[in-house]
Batch of 4 targets.
Target 1
Amino acid sequence: MSNQSIVKRKSNWPVFLRRGLLENIAIALIGLGFLMLFQPFALVLYTYSFITMLVGTVMFIIVSKFPE
Amino acid sequence: MSDMPSGKPLVTDTNSSILDRAATAAAHATPEPLAKKVRGLSDRMVAWIFIAPTILLLLAINIFPLIWAIQLSFTNYRANRPNADIKNIGLQNYSRILGDADTWIAMQATAHFVFWTIALQTLIGFTLAYLIDRKFRGHAFWTTVILVPMMLSPAVVGNFWRFLYQPQIGLFTYIISFFTGIPPTEIEMLSNVSLAPWSIIIVDTWMWTPYVMLICLAGLRSIPDYIYEAAEVDRASPWRQFWSITLPMALPFIMLAVLFRGIENFKMFDMVNLLTGGGPGSTTEVASITLKREAFEKWRTGYSSAFAIILFVAVFGLANIYVKVLNKVKNR
Amino acid sequence: MSATAHSVVEPSKVSRRIAGSVVVVYALVSMIPLFWILATSFKTPPDSISYPPKVIFTPSIEGYCNLFTTRTRQTAEYIASLPPAETFCDETTRKRNMVIAGQSNFLPRFVNSLIIAFGSTFCAVFLGTLAAYGFSRFKVPLADDLLFFILSTRMMPPIAVAIPIYLMYRELGLSDTALGMILLYTAVNVSLAVWLLKGFIDEIPREYEEAAMIDGYTRMQSFFKVVLPQATTGIAATAIFCLIFAWNEYAFASLLTSGTAQTAPPFIPTIIGEGGQDWPAVAAGTTVFLVPILVFTILLRKQLLRGITFGAVRK
């Protein structure tokens, strides 16, 4: 039954806003944030790691509500 | 119809009588709007009565303090001076932490610890799981033996490792010097700047490799035999079978273990605090130790709250991914 | 699985034997530290710090004596003037020119650990069972988000949580009390309990309760009389996991308790004798502390996988 409702909703969403892709981008952002936090090369990257992780996490929470 | 078994019957007992009942229920064949016709509280009510206490407890003990911490992170509050003026200093705490080269270096101690523990544990853990999956005689017994360290208290056992690491009298140093010939007085695992980071990695690997092993083992066992049989028919070499069947099929499980160990080691406190306390100097000062020093030794509560929020966001991000992988594994 | 295995996927005898020996060697090596804890707890202090480390030694319970007592140094004349020693502990202490001055803090700390671990486990399992049933059987709005919220609270770094909790407990007068620690551990454990128990309750067929309700049971009655008895194994396993966590916990305990409510993990590292750490006593305390967990681990071995994956992997 949940299958049907998803199919119904699917048509209203443009392809680039679907969950899979956006979720992967969010995960990549979180991962990138971690790399920036941990890397020993540039202080600037460390400085912006937190905001990257924050954006990734918030984005993940939002897009996980999007239809497949 | 007989009455329900009263009191607390044996599980098997209940089972059979319940099964009878289920059969009777099926025979009636009209349980459609069942939930609505049941006497007593409505399902909606029951659901909320059951769930609310847990949510309320978590709100009180976890979420309320978290919100408080967020609020404090914008101030210069110090917990040891509760009567001093609390000034709102905006994002200054955050910009100081994230612009500070010392904190950055402390973060690299964490990175070193997290990276090497995960690398070693995954490698050793997966190898062990692969070997145990050969199902030699007594494998169940030895699996249980291997699992013991991960159940023990990291603090209490970590503390005892301090003894094993003592130069000269420690067993670990003795064994190392026995095999390498280095005089045992020169192996100072805990006070040598280049060895101390490895001393905590060794203990963590010893403790948590079984964890990774157990999850990898579940992954290997979830691969159905027929896939290997098909590969055998196609004459795929064992090497190819490993890379194209075993590893990809077990990957979600490995990810699960890696993510969880990553989260746990990112916030590692107890074992490191007892083994090295962040020393010598700050070579093993992982993030949680820095946080403890700022919050409970220097009493810079506002500043440390901001640091706590930064760590929290990092863990929360990983936790999101972890649950995603968890659901993936669950559906296998 | 081994029963259904076919010849093509069955590993050869040689590969099995090699695999077996590697695993056994790893298991034995990983047991060395634990063996050493046990061995050290039965050594005398001089034996424990000898070089090379002594594998063969005359066992003594001096470590256990020192664990449970405090001692003061006395002159030889004073010790000679005392009535003859009554217990073994008296005797060994006097040989080191000391007399037993009283009980150490280990026993009260151990009792604290017991009270806090059992108290919080009971509360967590109680709340967890109710919530797990709720999530398992009813359509709860935002169920997935609530479940994630519950799990994420367990993932928070303990030190990060400890800062506001410390302030909160200071205001409420809960710092260094058993009640405060029980509340805190309940909150941490309830997340594990909900996730694990949801898995166990999901496995109990709904038809059982539906049948009971057709017979005129209310939802509550069917929960208590049908679901609970079926979930006993799951509840027991969950309880042991919660117990082990609360028993082992160190970070909160070391930051939020200092005296009356201190548990054993922050206490054991502070056991010191004359001239540094009294390793046999520390080892004795560690042994006493670890034995219950060893027993539980063996009891739990079939459920471990479930426990560490929050109920997701059931084998």
Note: Residues 12 and 18 of chain B are 10 Å apart (CA to CA).
Target 2
Amino acid sequence: MTSGEIQQALPSIALAHLFYEYGKLDAMIKEGYNEPGDEFYAYFLDLLYITADFVYEDYVDDYDVARWYFSNRAMVEYYRLCRTYGCAHGLKLKDNPYMREAERFVESAMDLGNSYGYGWYLNTKVGHEWASGIVFRTDCYFDGEMELLEALLSIRQWFEVGVQRLRKKLAEEQQQAAPRYMEVMAA
Amino acid sequence: MKIDLNWLTESLNAAKEGKSLAPLESCDYVMEHIYQPLLRGEQVLFSELDFDAFCTEDLWELDRWIEETENTRYHLRRLNLKFCEAVPVSLAKRAYC
């Protein structure tokens, strides 16, 4: 390789580093990317599919616009548990602290720095298997590929941790509520 | 093309001393396990890299270093080419150096 070719390959090494940081290097290698390469965009498009459990892409040729949908099992379960928590505490979705916490995180993660040419929307519905997710739209000016991959990896990680925390919280509340229920029944 | 060697010597003496082409020292790991093997045409596998030994910023520093090195090489090549293309001309009168 010449020095110039090495320069072209550096972004792919940066991607490998990013996936390593989020514990997804093995998945990247399994996808067939075990070596530095100069086709960054090919890496980017293939690696997007590792950032979420469910990925859907729709490209509108006429407008050069791509629409993506990224969903995770942990994310859907998190929003289901949010509703369970909300019911138990008589909270509306907009007042639910767990909903707000997740929204704040996703908002900060999806702020892709100085990148432009994109828009996104967080779907928090739970009606079907992949109902919660991020709708992401890019146009031909989009230049935040690396930032998007990092954002999606961090969101996935956040919900994986978040759902465990919420499960634990609900289990604790259920445990505390059980003796009270027995007391009421006995009375 | 005419190269005035007296002028060239004076200009080089008067030129401000700049940075020499120093090796990249900030991250030995990147140089030893990524840059040099790739330059030699050897295979570098992600599965064999120690990602804890360097950070992404080290890669961008390597990028800047390559840019700077290549830029210097380019200018040296151009200078060399100019000297190679120069046709020596004898002085009209005898001179002793």
Note: Helices of chain A lie at 3-21, 25-30, 40-47, 73-89, 97-109, 145-186.
Target 3
Amino acid sequence: MDLLTNILAATVVAGTPLLLVALGELICERSGVLNLGQEGMMLMGAVAGFIATLSTGSLAAGIVTAMLTGLAMSMLFAVMAVTLSANQYAAGLALTIFGTGLSAFVGAGFVGQSIEGFEKIAIPLLSDLPVLGRALFTQDLLVYFSWLVFAGVALFLRFSRGGLVLRAVGESPGAANANGLRVLTVRYLAVAFGGAMAGLAGAYLSLAYTPMWTENMTSGRGWIALALVVFASWRPGRLLLGAYLFGAASILHLVLQGLGWRSPTELLAMLPYVVTILMLILLSFDPVRTRLNTPLSLGQPYRPGH
Amino acid sequence: MAVSAQRLKLQGIVKDYPGCRANDGVDLTVGAGEIHALLGENGAGKSTLMKIIYGVVQPDAGRIVWNGHPVTVENPARARQLGIGMVFQHFSLFETLTVAENIALGLPADEVRDRGALEQRIREVSEHYGMALDPRRFVSTLSMGERQRVEIVRCLVQESTLLILDEPTSVLTPQEVATLFKTLRKLARDGCSILFISHKLEEVRSLCDQATVLRQGRVSGHCQPKDLSASDIARLMVGDDTPIATQVSAAQPGDTLLQVQELSWQTDDPFGTSLKNIGFSLRAGEIVGIAGVAGNGQEELLKVLSGEITLKGEAIRFTGEAIDRLPPGARRARGLAVVPEERLGRGAVPVMSLADNALLTAAGQGLVRRGVIRRQRVREFARDVISCFGVRCSGEQSSASSLSGGNLQKYILGREACQSPRLLVASHPTWGVDVGSAVAIHQALVKLRDEGAAILLISEDLDELYQLCHRMGAICNGRLSPLAPASELSINQLGQWMAGNFEVEELADAAA
Amino acid sequence: MLQLERRPEASTTLRWLSPLLALALTVATGFLLFLGMGKDPIQALTFFFITPISDLTGLAELGLKTAPLLLCAAGLTVCFRARIWNIGAEGHFLIGAVAASAVAVSVGEAGGFLVLPAVLLAGIAGGMAWAAIAAFLKTHLNCNEILTTIMLNYIALNLLLYAVHGPLKDPYGFGFPQSVMFADAALLPALINGTRLHIGLAFGLLAAVAVWVLFARSFIGYQLNVVGEDHRAAAFAGFSARRLTWFALLVGGATAGLAGAAEVTGPIGQLVPQVSPGYGYTAIIVVFLGRMHALGIIAASALLALTFIGGEMLQIAMNMPKAVTAMFQGMLLFYLLTCDAFIHYRIRFRRPLPAGLSQPAAPAGQEL
């Protein structure tokens, strides 16, 4: 029983950064913008959050700095991809390559330093539930916050006029413009939200998951999140499920080792990536649903009046 | 100074695009409750002018007066605020949303809080004008005619006092056109002004009170269309030196070249159309036409015939051989040529030169040897096409995107015609093409026919079909009507077929 | 009001000027950055860009690092021209290195002139096999190649780590995760005696020439271009996207695999975990910077190779973090894409018309 609880708790922790960054990307893609720069924005968020917390001693300062950094990075992308109509693939790749380099550069002096990370907070009553109580309700603040964001995104898309506008812009920016909607503003806001969430996800790694900074500490989570959004067919509910599934996959090697499984760690460390590919393969068996749900203008630049 | 009878007045509107002046000092006045036609052939500047009125683009000079007050229409939102509504030719609807959601998006946020009230309003307005609509249906499930209703109802719910309709009849069956005209007349009686953009003269003569004619970006005349004959108006549109129509001699059909039987194909595209049990035959030396409202399977039929979609069975026989499994290249090698509807981005690669675009389908004409491109021959081939078909361009190195629609279409058709095809499938070859090029394209098709080629003409333009075709039918929702000799097929019957009522009159595939 | 306006024709001048502009902006930003860090910017930039290539040894080192970049970039050019976004050169490279090492280690001390070709062929085959996975996933299971190639990169990295910790580990290597040193027969000959420069650079140049011939003369190169520019026109013409995807990815895998093999049989002489400082990723920048053109990617490879050496130089001489390399590379790509926007667009200054007022029909705006 204890083992199961521990595994579940670790799954939630491992899934949280994925959930955060993927929720941001989901909103971004729903507006028709594909931002492949998640990895770069996460790394920048991670390093900026870590440095801010280290120098101020405040976790809150770290979180805010990380989100602002992610947002600033995403604006670089937005200028290229939204205003200048650059190829979104190339611009996103550039953001990732740039973010990877810049974070390593900025963080070079901070490798090996440590901070006091987020503590687990037990929610009264709920945390006393058997098995799930300690797995779900004895977590750090950011885990609870990720659920809030999830609920917010789901409600926004389903019920609000803003959600309707976002979906409309993502389906057909030309028609949206003809309807008097401000396409570029909507896309900027969506990209900005994606950036802030990526920054937050990065900070989760450097402030809660493993409270320290190492180069490339995201190890592909930004990319996995991109796959996750496709896997979720742009729906928040499936995204939540997928994030925790990936979370489970990424701690599987620890579990197996804990169970005394003797297998080279390097091979087990491949698991999250293999699972990602398997998920993409799984999707190919249901191409109609993927196509029905893909925002129709995804990846296409838009210029009003042309 | 306000003259309340003048709803919209444009003065000296100028709009330059890089390389061309689309509007050159255009004046236009639309009165309250007036149905005003804006006429002109493709490229005359109609679309630009209406985009300016609707705030999609800004004029470089000129003034817009709305109900007596000078205004600036910065964007479509402002146009709607003023009371200008627009029904686009390619609808500005969101397929994945419902009718009510689509309409809600065009209204201010505080007016649509109450979804129930909005749905009620949509029902009321649509029924009042004879265009019943279910607000909860998804747009993707609606026919083209129904989508047009959504656009009109959207304008009415916004209480527009000027309704701009861009080529609204091109997506309708003849019967639907009659219903639309009834609605528009009723609207006009209620005081709504209507700007009706078209190049179909008979429609304009039956509907409109006033007309403004554009030619090459300038106003070439104002008239009351009911007082003039169609050919008089046509002269205003194209000038004196352009032939308006081709004289088509009678066809001399020969042996059957293409035999299609029980052709069915299931699409996996949620927004596509499946083909259902299609059968027809095509003989050498004849032009067979397929009419239909866009999106009823024309694109899919074209792909199945061209080989972009391959099939398993033996439904398509070309000169006796089943070609269902053959890819496009193999079909082309057997003499089957195709001119797709989209010129840029399918028939030609926009950024590539005309010479490079020749290679797209003509590689088999000795332009490639052992995998190596023979540049000299490619250039010669392209030059031949350009000179034979009178393509106006600065040479075979100009990019496809730099040509006007008509010239590029002549090049694409010429590229296929120069390969002496036995069968040519052409989809809407004169769509968006100027009259001069359209006549040239029609002549080229007839010439090919007279040389013994079979031609399948898929088009939404009924005038074109009646003019060129020996036999014709209609496609609706992936099913093909019987074919009938064009001379015996009434427009009414064709309209029924376009709407999917195939069994009204028993007309067998007589000529087959 | 500043407005972005589409040019009637794409500017050819800017197309080639843009990389130079991007380089200038990168250098300028670097200048400010060094200044902000309290370092002498002139000195730092000199160490970064000039010092590494001021003598023969330095030039040889530049060639040494140009080789893998050029090989990877040549393959990626074939992919990117067809808009197949293969991000997997890094993975192909690593698998190529592992496969080549496996053969080299198993041959051991056995000599013979066939050893080296066998080792290199193993590298090529390894890269191709890795690329084939992505090709299969794309053509048969419709998986997005960006995501699959990235994931395959991570998997390849772990395979490499497994190899040097497990089957290919030198049993007498004091526990270091690396293979034995290869025998002489498995090593690439030097191009210039007395330097580390080996014939890998010749492979790279040959690959660039092959890319040039492919796109200038061959029908398959034309087809790749058409698929990239306009996949609907390609479908209409009947060019098989599936076949072309396989072709492009296999070429990409082969060249990057060869690069990996050349790296372990050239300057390193054994398999180590740090066999690639990110050549496969940097090659992406090379392709964009080199305008997907043979001559362009040769120049761009040399420039990006310089950033690797320059970064090491700064680390040694001025005690700066090595990551300065990655940052310069990222900045370069960023500026490049921004400058590229002006190939198709220009900025115009335009005064909005006051309500209803007319303005003379003269050209209403100044070009910037």
Note: The mean pLDDT of chain C is 90.
Target 4
Amino acid sequence: MELFDILLSASFWAAAVRIASPLIFATLGELICERAGVLNLGIEGIMVIGAFAGWMAVYLGAGLWAGVFVAMLAGMAFGLLHATLTVPFGLSQHVVGLGVTLLATATAAFAYRLSLPEVTSPPRIEPFQPWPIPGLADIPLIGPALFAQTPLTYLAFALIAVVSVVLYRTPLGLALRAAGENPASVEAQGLSVTALRMGAVIVGSGLMAVGGAFLTMSAFSSFFFEMVNGRGWICIALVVFGAWRPGKAALGALLFAAFDAGQVRLQQTPIGAYVPYQVFLMVPYLLSILALELMSRRAEVPAALMVPFNKGER
Amino acid sequence: MAREVEAEVVLRLCGITKRFGPLLANDAISFDLRRGEVVALLGENGAGKTTLMNILFGHYTADEGTVEVFGRPLPPGQPRAALMAGVGMVHQHFTLADNMTVLENILIGTRPILSLRLDMRAARARVARLAADFGLAVDPGARVGTLSVGERQRVEILKALYRDARILILDEPTAVLTPQETAALFETLRKAVTLGLSVIFISHKLGEVMAISSRVLVLRHGRLAGEVATADTDRHRLAEMMVGAEITQPKLAERAPGPALLTLSAVHTPRRGNAPGLRGVSLGLHAGQITGLAGVSGNGQAALAALIGGLEAPVRGGMELHGLVPADWSPRAALAAGIARIPEDRHRTGSIADLSLTENAVLESYADAPYSRKGWMNWPEAEAFARRIIKTYDVRCPGPRVPIRLLSGGNMQKLILGRALAAGPRIILANQPVRGLDIGAVTFVHAELVAARHRGAAVLLISEDLDEVMALSDVIHVIYEGQLSPAFPRGSMSPAELGIWMAGDGFEGAVDAA
Amino acid sequence: MRLEPIANPSALRRVGLPAAALALTVLAASLLALLAGADPFATLGLIVKGAVGSRFAALETLNRATPLIFTGLAVAVAFRARLWNIGAEAQLYAGAVVTVLLGTGALPLPPALLIPAIALAAMAAGALVLLGPVLLKTRLGVDEVVTTLLFNFIMLLFVSYLLEGPMKDPLGMGWPKSPALEASARLPRIVTGLRLHWGFALAILAALAVWVVQTRTTLGYEIRAVGLNAEAARFSGIPVGRVMVKTALLSGGLAALAGFSEVAGLKGSLTLDLSPGFGYAGIIVAMLALLNPLGVVLSAIFVAGVFVGADSMSRAAGVPTYIADILTATALLTMVLALRLTTMRVRWR
């Protein structure tokens, strides 16, 4: 009964779309990296640094969009580090990715303590406000869910289309996908696998950081350490779930967000009184594992994912 | 001999030298390529052919020397510059992305990387025109992963032609083709030459070199060992130039076959990705007999090797070993049944690069005494075993404790051979045992297989090189799409007749062919 | 640029490059100190002093190193088989939960039997936690990196539930905390009066045992073969799936011992902040040790020293203690790069 009520409430769908937004940014970022052949386990830390950098910039007086830009730059910087170590030097993408996550997380924590040594609760900023789209926002159910969101959410949904078009309809996308499938095919056509992969990791990391920034600048209004809380790892699962296709991955993010929004609401129903709240909180992680399991059989992994390419070696 | 007026020089290599550490891969190589000619670059494995072409194409940078295309020097180390200058290369290992379509593969890198449009329609029309002009039929919308080897090669050639290549370099292009496909390729090359293109044809197959080229350059140990007009030479002289001596074919003494040691009856195995499984394969491997398996790569050879090697069990059909049905089937069971396995890929499956020779030597036997007891390794025994192999098989190496990756392909193969043959196996599975080896190592491996036959072992020789199969086998089967042809006794079939089977014709009406 | 292998790297390369990596790490630390307005030399000095400057500090470092040795070994064992166990954190908590479960009166055994029984049970629990992701990997091909990572979060929520529910200490004044272990279940100190418990000795013993397994047994050989080239291992008849499972059991068990030794040796009870990321730090420890079990002991002491030293420096010099996290992560990244460059030469063009 309660479940039905939840599914029919506009606030539920609005929440689902909101929760999906940071995941969409980060999932698209990870997807770009993986399509080019690089697994980016730095995602979790890069989301943290994005959340911190964007928020800090705004706290220090920058405009909201400038904050998003700063977050993106911070993410790209760590992306550059990841790319340099994994692409030309061909180091283990597992080890480097985890190292980047640890480093980025630590950097955010260090910078936070450095700039705010004594505060007990983090200061708030004025986050992005919803931009209801006139006319559309008044449609029942769909309106509040899709057309009364903050601009960052609109940006996330626009990016799904942009990434799809770039990957499947432009020379760049062609080369990028080929770099992740068989880098020799790119090198033989006179393009640089190194440049393509590094570019993909840097841009992808920028998107992940914007996903992190969404948390501090649109969803909440301040930064705290446990904020990202495994969302990065969930996004990696979403890329697999989406079979490395932007549209499917974003759909997965939405589905996932709907479950997440649903569990929060179920907690407040009588069911929540019987079931410990931790069980509800486990749902996202369990769902991610389930998604990986379901897709494992028919996944079309880019053939050169995690395979370093050394020019002239064959 | 009358010569026409010499055509313009389209490509000039001048004093190309390339070292890899202490190895001199190319030593001051110079030659010219003229418009409208097919030049064959002949040499055995390791002679430096591929290195030279990779320098020309910009994958490697030469230590010394220059490359000129149409009179202009080519900047070193830039594949893009070579492409722009009109050099197109068809690599031995195809450079295609399997999950993309033929058209997409052709288009990679053909438009400015940041431009926003891909004119698929115009591109498709152009590919169709080129395909018609050069006789390269292939569906531009097909995913490359679904294509046959021959079709993939056509895509590679189309890639070069699409970019207006004036000079085509083909690296061992016939290694993966049926005789009929080879003939079609030659037809395409002849068309290309009449249209004013120039071709460098890299090969170690003398017959093909004689058939297609107008001029032959012979490479030996990184040096240009000779240059000769094809009309002025023959196979024997080319062979001598290539290896410095006549090539001696292994001789098979007449021998009556013994009992069947391994019998397959109507065996089916599952598909694995793009690789077909076996479909109703019946086969008997007899003592004292070499059974050759011919076929275009990717037609089920891997499945048959996996089955006999213990990696795959039949889903249907029967298998008998020494007259008994094995209870369970695994690599260990195969080893225990006396099956020696020489794997197709010595780097990926035959050895573990970062383990020492000793550790590689006991890979198949470490779990048994004397190399281990109750879970504890006995390393001195293992090392003694490695030393025995090194001595018996003349493995050139700094010692048993160095990682095996430091060994040359031939020496690595000798260690694998020694490991496999140590226990005196009754059945030998030799999957592409000489691929990529130089002539000395090839002779050695072939001699070992013939010796094993002489001792009464049953040998299954799988090879994509039809000449090798025909030279060594007592009986030949052809494999196509996981089906096996009838057994053809030695000498009963010509290469062209086998080629018909390799192309899949004859399997429907198998009755009238056998 | 491109990398070319070096057949026989010179001694200078093999020693100089890791040294350069360390120097780079120290340089990074100095820059961070400068950024925080502190004197770099004084800051570094305070870190060293805080780590080994007194008997108390040194013992504190060894105490902190104890769980890191266990998690470092867990990671080292797993990574050798190229089993990416990033879930040492979850396995640690599994061990801790079992320790509390059995150490609060559930097992009526004398201490001489009780403690080993608890340790073994804890190991079994940790092994079990890793078994799930590994079976998903060997059966379905699900990447274990993500699953083990996600299990960390699930386990932490599970522990949170236990500590607020069935395992809550009735005398805990409402804090999410477990009851204290009985005295008979606690690991005694090695020397009376010195704050170092037998968990440290157990950790050294574990490192030795892992070393023996890796170099002397067929399992160690199988693990290496599987890790270096699973395809060749399978071809040779090594049961790759079984080896993976055995590796996982060993790895999970070792990580669980970290939880056991923290609860039974140091804390005496379980709280949600039992591990400040020991599982993740174990990855750094293992990589710095080049996955060598004996090296793990040294690198764990080094990493522990950085953390203990940074804590004490932070109180004195005001540089945020997170400098330790940056330092160890930097050490990890520079070290893997240095190691690559000892065997590969960079060729431009």
Note: Residues 9-243 of chain B form a domain with the Rossmann fold fold (CATH 3.40.50.300).
